[in-house]
Design the sequence.
């Protein structure tokens, strides 16, 4: 941008006030001021910079101790930065939603989105905010306008790869560059590590009954140093709490931003080295990052952005300023962060498979009953066997969504092992009277098995009874028969069901008529009329000793009676 005569005279006047009698030469759109020998170039450079910044100019120091002056273009287009910010936000929301919906098995989309925003998106952007605070402060102190960084999205896995510096005006001196970028990385890493530890301690959110993560990954590797130093916080499996996962992501992208390349914070810190050495280090670091991408393709996103912006590390306006001791200490701390937080191979995908055997597809609950032994809850029993070559963490879900509890849970099933599980659903969680069907899903992240269950929900009728009681509890001796008598005070159409395990074979007799069946089955013909005041004689003998089972009788409004047969 060309300088007019009035502007040149003003620069000459300011230079004379700061440096005394100086020689000013013009080359194109720039002015060059020769600093008199013996002056403290740092002190007088800062004075001159502060004097011309308010009139729209910036200055820089050349290798031959000459100050260059150029007019600053105030027209800055941040549309690309804002677009990348929006894309990164959406990428982080998506990554958090996918993780949370799998981690909190059985949760609705709205619940998963809430967990994603609160325990993943907000922590990630908190790390971004903390990282930018030192830069804002130093820019303000130096009188340099703060510039929004470039946000790097990573929709493939973690949501983001961090930030890249994109200053409109270079830093005033090398110490400002080192301090702002070092504190940015240190503050960001400390906050990320805090989220990681808090999430692992379970302080962030109510834990699911059983967790499984579909990212797809079986194992999430913590930073290498953590595996040696903080074994307490080493997750063998990949089931990190979403807040811990956010901290894990924050530690990784903060460590990658510590790479000494280009406009990454690690590249900015390279200001303490000679220009030739900075260029060599940048190319070595870029090569290392590309090598990492061979093990995990997502790492390639950051080198692509770096190559677009430039590999060479940026320079300050006063690149001849001496590096102070505290700047060197901070730079060493950043080097530690690079090695502490780096994870070359974060996600380990393994081949896994399992079989699921449900032992009973049907159960009975009674309306307005809380006692589990008398129909307040129904239990479904499963056997899950690991048939693959890698450990698995089975997780359960139910559709339509309803509350449930799981017992018999073992954290990890090793290859070839099996585990028995029992899912209980209470009466209040079953919507309406009648037959309620649900899909129970078992997943390990890679594979899912489903089974359909039926829950018969009855309301106890004062006019129907088994053996004079409703409900009736019958204790059956081994190899014995359950002899029941059903009675109704009213004339009504009644259906009588035997509800038992899938593999239970039995012989049932109703008023002398034999019925042989297996599992849950209707014992009476549909629409059978029961005369009030009479009783139906029912005898059931289990052929293979499978217990317990239930016998239910109900009318068209699902008012009925139930007999629980237990050993």
Sequence:
């Amino acid at each position: 941008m060309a300088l007019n005569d009035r502007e040149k005279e003003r620069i000459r006047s300011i230079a004379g006030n700061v440096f005394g009698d100086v020689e000013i030469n013009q080359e194109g759109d720039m002015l060059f001021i020769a600093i008199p020998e013996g002056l403290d170039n740092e002190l007088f450079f800062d004075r001159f910079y502060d004097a011309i910044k308010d009139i729209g100019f910036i200055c820089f120091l050349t290798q031959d101790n000459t100050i260059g002056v150029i007019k600053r273009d105030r027209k800055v287009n941040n549309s690309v930065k804002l677009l990348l910010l929006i894309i990164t936000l959406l990428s982080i929301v998506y990554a958090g939603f996918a993780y949370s919906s799998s981690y909190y098995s059985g949760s609705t989309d709205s619940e998963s989105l809430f967990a994603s925003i609160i325990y993943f998106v907000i922590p990630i952007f908190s790390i971004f905010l903390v990282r930018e605070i030192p830069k804002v402060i130093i820019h303000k102190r130096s009188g340099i306008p703060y510039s929004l960084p470039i946000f790097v999205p990573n929709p493939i896995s973690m949501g983001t790869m961090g930030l890249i510096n994109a200053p409109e005006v270079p830093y005033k001196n090398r110490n400002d560059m080192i301090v702002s970028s070092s504190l940015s990385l240190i503050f960001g890493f400390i906050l990320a590590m805090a989220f990681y530890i808090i999430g692992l301690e379970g302080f962030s959110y109510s834990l699911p009954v059983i967790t499984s993560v579909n990212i797809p990954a079986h194992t999430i590797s913590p930073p290498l140093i953590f595996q040696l130093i903080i074994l307490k916080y080493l997750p063998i499996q990949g089931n990190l709490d979403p807040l811990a996962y956010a901290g894990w992501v924050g530690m990784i992208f903060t460590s990658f931003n510590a790479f000494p390349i280009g406009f990454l914070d690690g590249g900015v810190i390279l200001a303490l080295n000679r220009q030739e050495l900075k260029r060599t280090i940048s190319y070595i670091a870029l090569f290392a990052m590309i090598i990492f991408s061979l093990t995990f393709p997502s790492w390639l996103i950051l080198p692509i952005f770096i190559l677009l912006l430039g590999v060479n590390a940026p320079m300050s306006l006063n690149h001849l300023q001496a590096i102070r001791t505290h700047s060197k200490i901070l730079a060493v701390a950043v080097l530690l962060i690079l090695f502490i937080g780096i994870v070359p191979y974060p996600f380990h995908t393994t081949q896994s498979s399992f079989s699921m055997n449900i032992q009973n597809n049907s159960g009975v609950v009674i309306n307005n009953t809380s006692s589990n032994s008398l129909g307040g809850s129904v239990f479904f029993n499963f056997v899950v066997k690991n048939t693959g070559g890698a450990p698995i963490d089975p997780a359960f879900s139910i559709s339509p969504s309803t509350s449930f509890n799981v017992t018999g849970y073992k954290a990890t099933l090793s290859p070839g092992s099996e585990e028995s599980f029992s899912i209980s659903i209470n009466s209040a969680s079953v919507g309406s009277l009648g037959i309620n069907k649900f899909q129970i899903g078992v997943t390990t992240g890679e594979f899912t098995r489903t089974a359909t269950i039926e829950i018969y929900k009855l309301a106890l009728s004062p006019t129907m009874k088994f053996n004079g009681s409703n409900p009736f509890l019958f204790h059956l001796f081994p190899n014995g028969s359950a002899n029941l008598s059903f009675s109704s005070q009213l004339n009504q159409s009644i259906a009588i069901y035997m509800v038992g395990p899938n593999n239970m074979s039995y012989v049932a007799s109703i008023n002398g008529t034999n019925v042989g069946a297996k599992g849950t089955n209707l014992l009476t013909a549909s629409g059978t009329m029961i005369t009030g005041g009479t009783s139906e004689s029912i005898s059931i003998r289990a052929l293979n000793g499978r217990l317990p089972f239930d016998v239910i009788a109900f009318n068209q409004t699902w008012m009925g009676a139930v007999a629980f047969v237990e050993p």
Summary: The radius of gyration is 36 Å. The chain has four domains: 5-71, 79-348, 354-458, 461-566. Residues 206-218, 232-237 have pLDDT under 50 and may be disordered.
